[in-house]
Design brief:
Oligomer: homodimer
Distance between the termini of chain A: 47 Å
Number of helices of chain A: 11
CATH architecture of the largest domain in chain A: 4-Layer Sandwich
CATH superfamily of the largest domain in chain A: L-amino peptidase D-ALA esterase/amidase
Order of helices and strands of chain A: EEEHEHEHHEEEHEEHEHHHEEEHEEH
Largest interface: A-B, 62 and 62 residues
Number of domains of chain A: 2
Strand content of chain A: 25-35%
Shape of chain A: globular
């Protein structure tokens, strides 16, 4: 389903302001490195976190904040992940308390997040010094600065805002995201901060975010490395005036559709801006015996280094796709596999019933030379389907991750 | 344990001859593309195969051959994988029967293997035409040609032969291997063909090969893509004259040690010659609560694209190592992790109790600029340990896999 896009991002829904400043964690004075999002009232809040056993300190502190399903603000720095870092928990708590004090709200209402270098102590003093300026700068126009402030090696900022009706009442959902960039000297992080003015209970909001994450953020891969700092969170101010969503009824489904659209947009933006990426790759698996099988197959394909390098070369190398499906551990019958490649330039069938077809190599190259391409896999085994998104593996990926300290 | 290396490879043990020729599957006349290994008597035989759900036809045909645990010959072509290919099973059987006929042995005694292009029909006629020449060329000096004939984009041929005592009797084990190379237009394959003159029953030989594979071939990764054609097999002629190994007694352990040494040598040779690789990377995990945990951690580290690119840049980026450990799904306590990097240039500690140390960056760079480097992870949680081997991720990997058709 398509939704009506509106201007802005996290400030589009009623009740939210934001700002972004340079506080000094990053040396480059032109790079914003501290973002703040504030709601004017208590919000239902929910988050999903990295599954990495090594979790950054702000992840644990945010878990504490969200125990009661309620929050009012998000503070996030780039340039230092505060993961495996000396005094990690103390510093993440200090960052949260300082933000709360500056905003005049309880510490338990602040979500805290970091992205950047692993293993180096976070300089909270520079954040504290910047709080008067960033709090003073909060505005309905500040979402853009916040989106820039959370970027690391991202080449574009990622934002969206949509309008939909929930129970006949206009509701907005907005979001910003970052990833998968690289910070000296460490790994990328996926962050997504989403706001809405829908009225919804914390429990149901968490269900909606989990459901959407499973089908969007959890279906992208840039390099298979799950960061220590990944987080997606959503704040719902309730100011839209819709009847409170507290059950999985029709209004929940209306809201869920919009939230999924926002998450999918941000997820695809992250995949398309993967380190060194020149193309967004979607792998659509249809006709699977279960959604889980379809998802595993699609994710194995978009995660395969051999598929990713082939598509960098615009090479219709379908044997690598079926090989990746084969080691995915998902059930499927190779002899039922049909496969095509497609883009805005057309569609070309390359494999039928598990065996190769003779196809027009020049046309295939033209199709695969686009910025957004799809691998269409049809299994003829059932009705389940899933799509996963990734990007190609390029010289620039190696340069960004291998050469940056030399 | 170290073993005495001897000259040659699969022909070093008593009872084996080999040959390699150019039959015409590959266009380049200077590239050997057909290998043959023959035993002068019936051998105990065992093999392990790819776990990919998409298996090449020769894998199934070899499974048939080895149902009775007995074989006399191995025939292998490079240039075409006979996977997802028209008439795959028919052609693999035809290749096996033709070889058997030329050698004057039963078809059920021939192991058949292919590596190369996926999805294209195998031209068995050229193999049949080359059989008189390759059978006529079988000799004790032919192992080298066989090792070259199974290469694809390998840059060096891989071979070893060792001598050991089993129950006081001199025994030899020899082997050749290939991988992980790339063939137009498809994926790499890992093949290892091992011979021995030890007397050992097929069942116990299979146990030994499985045990060794788990700790050697299954602990290497070049790009995480498990091929459709992977196979390791071993033929035991029994001509050494040792008392038949039929139980897991001391002589079994003597033989197992030698076989593991051979497998490890071939496995490390494959990892070191990974596509585009400039360094062999070993990740040694010690102090783990179980061998399985240690293995999972070590494999996650050497499979991480971010670790691989960092080590291409000789960058002591330990945060990426602990991050990969974190998403490995193996149990460990991050706060117990000690980590060092080492090579022939020395050793440098970079992390203690899960937190970063200040270290000499220049020395780290010198250590990591060697051809063989190790990541040493100590967990202080138990006595279990495991090592996995991989290689760095370089511009050449992207060039080989992305540019080869342009």
């Amino acid at each position: 389903m398509e939704y009506k896009k509106t201007a802005g991002n996290v400030c589009a829904p009623k009740g939210f302001t934001a700002a972004g400043v340079h506080c000094g964690i990053r040396k480059n004075r032109n790079k914003l490195d501290l973002a703040l999002i504030l709601a004017e009232c208590d919000c239902s809040a929910a988050a999903v976190y990295t599954t990495n056993r090594v979790k950054a300190a702000p992840i644990y502190v945010t878990m504490e904040t969200l125990e009661n399903g309620c929050a009012r603000a998000i503070i996030c720095n780039s340039g230092n992940a505060n993961a495996c870092a000396p005094n990690g928990l103390e510093n993440a708590r200090r960052m949260r308390e300082a933000a709360a004090k500056a905003l005049g709200i309880p510490g338990g209402d602040v979500i805290v997040s970091s992205t950047g270098v692993i293993g180096t102590e976070l300089n909270v003093s520079v954040i504290e010094s910047a709080l008067p300026a960033i709090c003073g700068g909060l505005s309905k126009n500040g979402g853009n600065d916040a989106a820039y402030a959370i970027m690391t090696t991202d080449t574009v900022h990622k934002e969206i805002a949509i309008e939909l009706e929930v129970g006949g009442v206009p509701v907005k959902i907005g979001g910003i995201a970052k990833g998968s960039g690289m910070i000296h000297p460490n790994m990328g992080t996926m962050l997504a901060f989403i706001t809405t003015d829908a009225a919804i209970t914390p429990d149901i909001l968490h269900e909606a975010l989990s459901e959407c994450t499973r089908k969007t953020f959890n279906r992208i891969s840039v390099d298979g490395d799950t960061s220590t700092n990944d987080m997606a969170c959503v704040l719902a101010s309730g100011l839209a005036g819709n009847a409170l969503i507290e059950w999985k009824d029709d209004t929940y489904l209306e809201f869920l559709g919009g939230l999924k659209y926002v998450c999918e947009h941000l997820a695809k933006s992250i995949a398309a801006d993967g380190e060194g990426a020149s193309r967004l790759i979607a792998c659509e698996v249809t006709g699977a015996r279960s959604e889980e099988a379809a998802e595993r197959l699609a994710k194995a394909v978009i995660s395969s280094s051999l598929v990713k390098t082939a598509l960098f070369g615009a090479d219709a190398n379908w044997g690598r796709v079926i090989c990746a499906m084969g080691y995915s551990k998902a059930p499927f019958r190779p002899e039922f596999v049909d496969m095509a490649f497609s883009s805005s330039k057309g569609r070309i069938q390359v494999c039928r019933d598990g065996a190769g077809l003779v196809f027009d190599e020049a046309l295939a190259k033209e199709i695969l030379s686009e910025k957004e391409i799809a691998i269409n896999v049809a299994l003829s085994e059932g009705d389940a389907h899933a799509t996963a998104w990734g990007c190609d593996l390029t010289y620039d990926y190696v340069r960004i991750n291998g050469d940056y300290r030399t």
